[in-house]
């Protein structure tokens, strides 16, 4: 066993380092990922150790970065692309959804595109416009893409390893507000399936389902609710496409209530799909409607107002109270 307490940022760096050491076909590429080590220093030291041919500083052109990665993948490489901020991905959206996502099906399975696109996402860092978006549902809607988001350092390490080893394109959303959160990482462990949800707190009265940055918020809500005698189960979804509906169903069949939490707007968010599926699957087990907590259907506000926009402890607990107030 080789266990170390790492931040999420350091765990991602360690995972990239492992991948570069293990497979000569792995490349890291993006804006300022080399000499600077990335704006969040997630790729710090990699270019120094692996050279400019393996860790590549690209022009400021997201469409060109992803297009180049597609070409490299067609030649047998495994590119790991960094999009510097969530809001910068949209110039590359056409390449991602029109080419990257569809090439495997278009070639009747003969072509694989093992491309990982890392995207720091979400708010609560006091950033300017275009730096605090949560666009995960836009990618989850597209067939042919896998979409995942870790909530802790161990998952950050292992889920990235699994994403890089996947022959399918993976959008890997990194919760930037949690970059400095620390937890134990065992780099010799045998990880579970990439798209399996995980129960991170047992409970009996209600299930909180979340991924990425909101898992910690839900754990805090469960701790606060416990002081009032309420037992909340917290499920870390980990994967947004595909979603582990079996794990959600199993939890809801036990608790009878579900609240889905994500930073992205509630309107047409991933929580809507979860609510619809679980209502179909668990109709006779539900003691209350499935409720959703998320951002508002509005452009992301200036940083001084983001605390009002983002779902926090009070909004999660308010939905918990609403769900528990329903009587069968």
From TrEMBL:
Query: Which CDD domains does this one have?
Result: TPP_PYR_E1-PDHc-beta_like
The prosthetic group or cofactor this protein requires is:
thiamine diphosphate
- Asked whether the keyword Nucleus is assigned, the reply is no
Which SMART domains does this entry report, sorted A to Z?
Transket_pyr (SM00861)
Where in the numbering of this chain does the Transketolase-like pyrimidine-binding domain appear? 6-181
UniProt entry keywords in alphabetical sequence: Oxidoreductase, Thiamine pyrophosphate
The molecular function terms in GO held by this entry are: magnesium ion binding; oxidoreductase activity
Q: Which Pfam families match?
A: Transket_pyr, Transketolase_C
Q: What is this protein called?
A: Alpha-ketoacid dehydrogenase subunit beta
Origin species: Streptomyces triculaminicus
